[in-house]
Amino acid sequence: PETGCLSIVVLGASGDLAKKKTFPALFNLYRQGFLNPDEVHIFGYARTKISDEELRDRIRGYLVDEKNAEQAEALSKFLQLVKYVSGPYDSEEGFQRLDHAISEHEIAKNSSEGSSRRLFYLALPPSVYPSVCKMIKTCCMNKSDLGGWTRIVVEKPFGKDLESAEQLSSQIGELFDESQIYRIDHYLGKELVQNMLVLRFANRFFLPLWNRDNIENVQIVFREDFGTEGRGGYFDEYGIIRDIIQNHLLQVLCLIAMEKPISLKPEHIRDEKVKVLQSVVPISDDEVVLGQYQGYRDDPTVPNDSNTPTFATTILRIHNERWEGVPFILKAGKALNSRKAEIRIQFKDVPGDIFRCQKQGRNEFVIRLQPSEAMYMKLTVKQPGLEMNTVQSELDLSYGQRYQGVAIPEAYERLILDTIKGDQQHFVRRDELKVAWEIFTPLLHRIDRGEVKSIPYKQGSRGPKEADQLLEKAGYLQTHGY
Ligand code: BG6
């Protein structure tokens, strides 16, 4: 592993994302020994004028269960590594002060023989990315003659449509090389998402089945049982397609549908993802159902006539030899009846079914990303007993049982560690992002113009009934208990 001074700068340090995700992930990495206190310093940067101690107070509560004594001790050591610099996002003066603070740390900790590594995490809205990147480039690059690097991590939403995303990409691309830019999609850090390639390409079972001859439909579902709580202003500008489907669910689709990469090199994997995205055909309006939960507009930051969807079901179709004719149903919604993210792969009926058991349900392979990570396969077996009856049962690999006591890392922990190691496999490449926007932009523009309407649905429900009807039309067979 690389050694030398490591400075991690969290820009937008007092924001929601930094407090809830970035700092907790950094703390967990520290606790597990991945951040060496002799090398690491963490800097928060934001506009708010507060002291180091005030920043520590603001994040402390998000990092640990205070009652856990072991964690409490680690916490106080960790917080000593956290410093704060305040300043605007568009002034050289602020970033010069930041650079000065980083350099001081480098001089103190370095390592005359060490290189210096600078990681900038932009926990900020995309509107300030260009100016922040420019400031980093002008004032804060690694200057060590002894090597090292400067990397930047950017969060979604990366643009609002194809044009704005491309503009943002060019602006940042002029300042940084693609190898320095880490576009985070935290779904790529989830355990069962990372398992997809292994599952598909290390198991003989799946190889011959994974295609249009055997698979009837694929469903990728995200549900949340809470609304936009406190984020109405942000959300209303983006909606569920930009917030969840165009990135998180589409990334999952890539891993399900892509061809086998020639190796595990990040570029080879990302090449295959781009290819499958390029095979997606334009979305047709009659394969889209939008919804908005009742009460969404009560948020004072949401306009009274908002058409922004908080729910969407869309069908994507992939025009290639493997997937022609197989609907990929992407569904996401807020304020629904449960919190769950899963992939459901439904297989075709058995031809000439002598048991006449189809009504019991099809073979279905379910990968539950969260909560309670699991994979299970629904299959038909003989009901135990004297009679020759059939019943649907499950081959079940529930991680909580099978891997008892194994802690599953948080997505952000893994991904931040990858940025430090310089592994871009689980990050979105520029051309991948471009195709992702190409797929959704025409639909998004039609929604923005009010040409596709959101249907109201009750909070705590399954979403609009029209979405279930669309699923049925696409050939999805509702099974018991779903
Ligand atoms: C974020 C979205 O990217 O993902 C949020 O902006 C959403 O709206 C969140 O709540 C869901 O993440 P997870 O990991 O809880 O499924």
What does this structure look like?
A nine-stranded mixed beta sheet has the order 14-13-12-11-7-10-9-8-15, with helices on both faces. Strands 3-2-1-4-5-6 form a six-stranded parallel beta sheet, with helices on both faces. The protein has 482 residues and is α/β, with parallel strands linked by helices. It contains 14 helices and 15 strands. Bound molecules: 6-O-phosphono-beta-D-glucopyranose (BG6). The site of 6-O-phosphono-beta-D-glucopyranose has 3 residues, from loops.
- In N-to-C order, the SSE pattern is EHEHHEHEHEHEHHEHHEEEEEEEHHHEH
Helix- and strand-based class?
alpha/beta
Distance between the termini: 46 Å
Radius of gyration: 24 Å
Pathway: Carbohydrate degradation; pentose phosphate pathway; D-ribulose 5-phosphate from D-glucose 6-phosphate (oxidative stage): step 1/3
Main location: cytoplasm
EC number: 1.1.1.49
Family: Belongs to the glucose-6-phosphate dehydrogenase family.
Structure keywords:
482 residues, alpha/beta, nine-stranded mixed beta sheet, six-stranded parallel beta sheet, 14 helices, 36% helix, 22% strand, binds 6-O-phosphono-beta-D-glucopyranose, NADP binding, G6P_DH_C, glucose-6-phosphate dehydrogenase activity
